Amino acid sequence: MIRVATVDDIMEIENIYNEILDYEEQTVSYTNWQKGLYPTVDYAKSAIDNNTMFVGENEKGIYGCVVLNSIQPKEYDNISWVTKAQPSEIMVIHTLCIRPSESGKGKARIMMEFIEKYAKEQGYKVIRLDTYEGNIPAGTLYPKIGYIYVGTTKFHFQNVIWEDLKCFEKSL
């Protein structure tokens, strides 16, 4: 089940963020996220306050989370998007996270299916997202489920880290 997150979910969301960051410190960093910088509990609280944080859960509890809104980073202006749409017709996926212990079990695909259904129900015309160029799992998944790679652009992440992010979109 995937649902809008509530304030009661904040600890589990923070745990997911920390589990991912700890896992990446010990293995390989696919996200290029930085502990204490992004994602943070304040980021999650803000998304919950705006009803834009969603969680995926099963019998074991919350396994993933994602922020869905129409906020496009300014760097998106550098991309030649295939689908022309007004800002209000564009859903943007931010910070899709799957708990490391649930990784590789199709949970990201389940969440993406929900996102597409939800976006259609809400009247969006297109979904856009970006991922760190070194995020091989995400960069492999998105084309498999119909997202078109539209380009890579430099992001000045949190005004601290320069990184190249691959951008994808899917017309609905």
Automatic annotation (TrEMBL):
Q: What Pfam families does the record point to?
A: Acetyltransf_1 (PF00583)
UniProt-listed CDD domains: NAT_SF
Superkingdom of this protein's organism: Bacteria
Q: Which InterPro entries has this protein been placed in?
A: Acyl_CoA_acyltransferase, GNAT_dom, YpeA/RimI_acetyltransf
Q: Does the keyword Nuclease apply?
A: no
This entry's Gene Ontology molecular function terms read:
acyltransferase activity, transferring groups other than amino-acyl groups
Which UniProt keywords are given for this protein, alphabetically ordered? Acyltransferase, Transferase
Domain N-acetyltransferase residues, every copy: 1-168
UniProt-recorded name of the protein: GNAT family N-acetyltransferase
Source species: Clostridium chromiireducens
